[in-house]
Predict the structure.
Amino acid sequence: MGLVAKIKPSKKRKFGKGVAVCRRCGTSVGVIRKYKLYMCRRCINEVAPLMGFKVYS
């Protein structure tokens, strides 16, 4: 019988980058919190024109 690793559920974050999740897709990677947007950079790219931002390539 081999080693059995116990996997604990990740703890609920209170501070830092892991707290902020994207409102649209739920990811916590690349979230833009400025102006209380709370959207990841990929979702911002998709909906920026609808929100009134000018998108430059």
